[in-house]
C-alpha cells in the first residue's frame, strides 16, 4: 500500500504541463522523507521476537543514531495464508532518500534504503490533482514498490509449500486452516480492537475450507451439535443487526464465534489424525 503525503494542487481544474513538472521536480528532489511515510512490517515472526527491534540509522556509511521500535499487531486476513503481521511507522527522525535503516531481529538483520519519492495522480470527476508519495524502497538491497515486508527465514517455505500442494488436498486444507487458527489466536493474544466481525468471519471461512473432509470414514463426528448451536446464534445476530440492536448483535456474534472456533480446532485435530492414519496406511502398503 502506498503511503500518501498530500501537497497542494489545483481543484476543479487541470494542471498545466509546467505546474506538473514543477511539482514532480519538487517531489522527487525532496532532501528528506516526510515524517511518518516510512514503515516496517514483519511477517512470520512470533510476538516476542519483534517486541522490541533495534534500529540503526546510517548515513554515508556511518551510524548517526540508534533507536528502538515496538511493532504492533496488524489485522490482515485478506490473503489465503492469513499473514501474521506486526508493523511500526518510523516517526521523529530526519531521514534522507539515500540513508539506510538497519533493523536487528535476533540474529537476523534487515535493511531499508534508497527511498524514492514520486508523484501519484489523484484525479476526481472535477479536478486533476497529484500527491507526493514514497513510491518504492530497497529491502535488503532489492527494490520493492509495494510489499515492504521483512519476512522471517523459513516462512517463505511455508507459502511456497501451500502453492505446491493441490488446493483440493487434505494437506493443503490443514496448512490453510492452521494459519487461520494461528491468526485468530494471535488476534486474541494481542487484544486487537474493533475486529470481532473479522475474526469470527475468519473462523467460518476455516470451517468452509474443512467442509466434511476432516472426517475419517467409520469414525464418529460429534461436532455437529456444537456447530448447529453456533449457526443458530449467528442467525440471531443477523436479525438483531438488521433491526438496529447493535450491542446485542455483537455479543451474539462473539458467542457464536467462540463456539465455532472450538469446533474449528476440534475438526482441525481430526483432519490431522486422518492425514496421520493415511500416511501410516500408505507406509504399511509400501512395506508389504
Sequence-ordered SSE layout with sheet pairings:
Layout: E1 4-6, H1 17-28, E2 39-43, E3 53-59, E4 62-69, E5 72-74, E6 85-89, E7 100-105, E8 108-121, E9 130-139, E10 142-144, E11 149-151, H2 155-164, H3 170-189, H4 196-210, H5 224-242, H6 246-287
Q: How would you summarize this macromolecular structure in one to three sentences?
A:
The protein has 288 residues and is an alpha+beta fold. It has helices at 17-28, 155-164, 170-189, 196-210, 224-242, 246-287, and strands at 4-6, 39-43, 53-59, 62-69, 72-74, 85-89, 100-105, 108-121, 130-139, 142-144, 149-151.
Structural account:
The protein has 288 residues and is an alpha+beta fold. The protein has 2 domains: 4-151, Immunoglobulin-like, CATH 2.60.40; 165-287, no CATH class. It is built from 6 helices and 11 strands. It has helices spanning 17-28, 155-164, 170-189, 196-210, 224-242, 246-287; strands at 4-6, 39-43, 53-59, 62-69, 72-74, 85-89, 100-105, 108-121, 130-139, 142-144, 149-151. Strands 1, 3, 4, 7, 8, 9 and 10 form a 7-stranded antiparallel beta sheet that branches. Helix 3 (170-189) runs antiparallel to helix 4. The termini are far apart. The relative contact order is 0.12. The model has no long low-confidence stretch (mean pLDDT 83).
